[in-house]
Request: fold
Amino acid sequence: MEKKTQKIEIPLPVPGHGAELIDTHCHLDMSAYEVDFEAVLARALAAGVTRIISVGIDLESSRRAIGLAEQHQGIYATVGVHPHNVAELSEADYAELQSLCRHAKVVAYGEIGLDYVKNYAPIALQKEHFARQVALAKDLQLPLVVHDREAHDDIMEILEAAGPFPAGGVMHCFSGDAAFVRRVLTLGFHISIPGVVTFAKAEMLHEAVREIPLASLVLETDGPFLAPVPKRGKRNEPQLMLFTAQKVAELKGVSLEEVARQTTMNAVRLFGLEG
Ligand SMILES: [Zn+2]
Reply:
């Protein structure tokens, strides 16, 4: 007899009481969303994810993020150059980055940082451009969106030297342990939790989430990457952040609605969004 594999769809845990969520980090401008962009937004809205911050990784994607923010009320943009893309940065690029930041819907500077896993750009150049962009963001009084892969100590060294940051910042796609949580919080930064938190083996991240006060926590998809369980390996999109929110609620021992309420309030304050 042939075994029948039955596909059971795990329903999206949509919060009650009309609770809204904000996806603080998604790459909406990427080609992965081209075919069904409007449907992605509609599904997000239906799930309560009413606002999405589209994050730039180079000049081109920063421009595109601003374009999307101009066309859609619930979309905001960031401007910045990811560590993968810093090798070719010119003075003219810096001038344009600065001028893009004056757009009314640009709510943060990033994503910027250090990536010691892929090392697409030499470490010395990554550090130089991270420090320079941190200084630029500080000048512009914009919160920072920081990308940190296996570079905790160098990230903190650069940030601690450039601080304090009255406009704050967020450590996106957090991957540190509980001790690193405390170090990031000392800087006054928020910590953004990705779908990775739903992975069974992400025990260090589970421990970190327990350590982070709800007042310092925001949520993200990092879409189209890193879809949460039960969609792991598929394209990620903002509505799937509900699975991430539910896991955070479970780890913190609070309701999904409470996670939605707190993380939305935190994101509104950090990025200076409307109520
Ligand atoms: Zn990202």
Remarks:
- Residues 123-139 form the longest helix (17 residues).
